[in-house]
Amino acid sequence: MRATSEQGRKLDAPAGPDTAFEALRSTLAEQLREVERHEPGTRLGHDPESLHDMRVAVRRLRALLRAGGKLVADDTAELEARLKELGRVLGEVRELDVLIERLEGEAAELGEEDAERARPLLAVLRRERSRNRQRLLAFLRSEEYSTLLDDTARTIEELRPSGSGASLGDLADKAFRKTRKAVRGLSDEPADDELHAVRKKGKRARYAAELAGRKKFVKRAKQLQDVLGEHHDAVVAAARLRELAAGAEPEHALAAGRLVEREAERRTAAREEWPKAWKKLCRKA
């Protein structure tokens, strides 16, 4: 039987890492401990932030395994793919948490009559969230999940340095170059999924910058992430509302239409704002 979160896993992070490899390994170990620290709260479900924090820790693990690949002699692609599956089941619940909270707030601002008409739409999303949460809990109880944590701990412990002379700054620079390349490839009116791809690359650059200790860059990258995150949330919300409206009674579809209009406004505002955040990041990068 695997160790519980309370017992802790025998994974000692190097104290005061003095090489890029040691710093990477130490941070990977820290993120695994974060996954386990937030697991009990995710299981209980009382505080949505536990799920959010667990998902973020999984994301950081994956991003750092990719970013630090040059420093490591081992192939971690299979482990990264398995962590991606964990992130997926966490995300299926977390994304609905975000969507429901967002639409509840928007509906409340429509006025009492339209807010009441929107209730059945939100009820559909809550039922979907409940089903997704049951799948998440089943995954967390599974042997697959237990083995994944054990394998992640063992992999981190047994990582071997590649002997590369790359610094943490080099890794951060490389991650940012990938983001810059993605932005330069955008058209004047980029598609929604293209901006989402930039957001994901920017997040990876931010995590690499965190590893390198570039606090000012991280702060500005977070600002860009917030703007592009708002854009993505508006796109997702509008799409789900259209799906719900397609099978709804006319009065409920009308409320969905009003909510779609609000999401369209938020999407437009984010599209106008994100280039400013990007330019600010580039000036200081």
Give a quick rundown of the structure:
By secondary structure, the chain is mainly α.
Relevant terms:
disordered N terminus; single chain; 285 residues; mainly alpha; 0% strand; 80% helix; flat
Report on the structure:
By secondary structure, the chain is mainly α. Helices cover 80% and strands 0% of the residues. Helix 2 packs across helix 7, helix 6 packs antiparallel against helix 7 and helix 7 packs antiparallel against helix 8. The protein is flat and about 65 Å long. The N terminus is likely disordered.
Question: Can you lay out the helices and strands and say which pair or pack?
Answer:
Blueprint: H1 20-44, H2 48-67, H3 77-108, H4 112-140, H5 143-158, H6 168-184, H7 192-212, H8 215-246, H9 250-284
Helix pairs in contact: 1-2, 1-5, 2-3, 2-7, 3-4, 3-5, 4-9, 6-7, 7-8, 8-9
